[in-house]
Amino acid sequence: MTGNHPKPISPEEAAETLRAASLRPTRQRIAIAERLLDGRARHVSAEQLRDELVDYGQPMALATIYNCLHQFEEAGLVRPVHHAGDAVLYDTNLCDHHHFVDVETGELIDIDPGEIILPELPDLPDGFEAETIELTVRLRRKS
Amino acid sequence: MTGNHPKPISPEEAAETLRAASLRPTRQRIAIAERLLDGRARHVSAEQLRDELVDYGQPMALATIYNCLHQFEEAGLVRPVHHAGDAVLYDTNLCDHHHFVDVETGELIDIDPGEIILPELPDLPDGFEAETIELTVRLRRKS
DNA sequence: TTACTACTTTAGAATCATTCTAATTTTCTT
DNA sequence: AAGAAAATTAGAATGATTCTAAAGTAGTAA
Ligand SMILES: [Mn+2]
Ligand SMILES: [Mn+2]
Ligand SMILES: [Zn+2]
Ligand SMILES: [Zn+2]
């Protein structure tokens, strides 16, 4: 793990976080924030999040979930990861970190940044700046 | 549409490579091998490859291109890269190497493995072995 | 509160990469 | 050349995501 400790989040806290991000605290955004912004490091797809919201008695349109995830992303509340399977996973771990990917299941496992020595970067192409540096280790179950 | 493409390998060479990979040298596979296996390091999507084959007077069904790319992948002749945009790119550079990704265009640029110091890997989860280790540096054009 | 307006949600359609199906064609072997 | 196996193909299907445009909601000023 990465040292993130679960901190339960109330609807009021969720609303406050949303306001701080200049997002109107709608019922839908609050429900999503309550689930995703509790400090736990997770990787969820839009569909997984929908199932979870149904379980919690807050079903909503899939389009709304996509809308909210994009807004949360823009606000820096979640980060998309494109490496596993077909669906984008949204990462609630905002620290710099890397991933193991189970190639069979597509599941992501965080690599603690303390456990890895970041490599020296090569010279970047002219006119570009590095936005993110991501190490992905694809894992396969030993036979 | 019509771009500058380098000189391909000969159909005979392509057919021989295919036989060595236990793939029947069909007209379609030969055409694809001629374009992709000329030793140049490239990153192509299925659709880009189709356009190129049309330019070369060897149009074929998109399904065939997908079939062939999968077979080439299984034979170790190309490697898929999933990091850029929505479409999978097939990499003809089989050496261990890493990638810059232009986040605007999705274009991949190889990072010479000599230019980078591979990090020490952390302990893998029990029962897994590392299949690939991939470093991706996302680049954004300086404003 | 009311009214206004901008923002948000929503169902369903559309899009796009990719995969599947089932029929036809080609390759390889006798 | 003939038969069996493998490959190609058009078009349909799939699945994640985005779009559309209509209906609902939230913030705000009167
Ligand atoms: Mn993908
Ligand atoms: Mn993607
Ligand atoms: Zn993560
Ligand atoms: Zn490459």
What is the number of domains of chain A? Answer: 2
Tell me the total number of β-strands of chain A.
6
Bound molecules: manganese (II) ion, zinc ion
CATH architecture of the largest domain in chain A: Orthogonal Bundle
What global shape of chain A is seen?
Answer: globular
Task: Please state the CA-atom Rg of chain A, rounded to the nearest Å.
Answer: 17 Å
Query: Structural class of the helix and strand makeup of chain A?
Result: alpha+beta
Which two chains form the greatest contact, residue counts included?
A: A-B, 35 and 35 residues
Low-confidence stretches of chain A: 1-5
Determine the strand fraction of chain A and express it as a percent band: 15-25%
What descriptive keywords fit this protein?
6 strands, DNA-binding, three-stranded antiparallel beta sheet, Arc Repressor Mutant, subunit A, Dna Ligase, domain 1, binds zinc ion, globular, 143 residues, 22% strand, homodimer
How would you characterize this protein structure?
Two copies of one chain form a homodimer. The longest helix of chain A has 13 residues, at 62-74. In chain A, a hairpin with a 7-residue loop joins strand 2 and strand 3 (89-91). With 143 residues, chain A is of the alpha+beta class. The first copy, chain A, folds into two domains: 11-84, Winged helix-like DNA-binding domain superfamily/Winged helix DNA-binding domain (Arc Repressor Mutant, subunit A, Orthogonal Bundle), CATH 1.10.10; 94-139, 2-Layer Sandwich (Dna Ligase, domain 1), CATH 3.30.1490. In chain A, helix 1 packs across helix 2 and helix 3 (46-55) packs across helix 4. The first copy, chain A, has helices at residues 11-20, 27-36, 46-55, 62-74; strands spanning 43-44, 79-81, 89-91, 98-102, 108-111, 128-141. In chain A, the strands form two sheets. Chain A has a three-stranded antiparallel β-sheet with strand order 1-3-2. Chain A is globular and about 45 Å long. Chain A is built from four helices and six strands, in the order ααβααβββββ. Chain A binds chain B through residues 82-83, 100, 102-103, 109, 111-112, 115-125, 127-142, and chain B through 82-83, 100, 102-103, 109, 111-112, 115-125, 127-142. Strand 6 (128-141) of chain A pairs antiparallel with strand 6 of chain B. Chain A binds a DNA duplex (30 and 30 nucleotides) through helix 2 and helix 4.
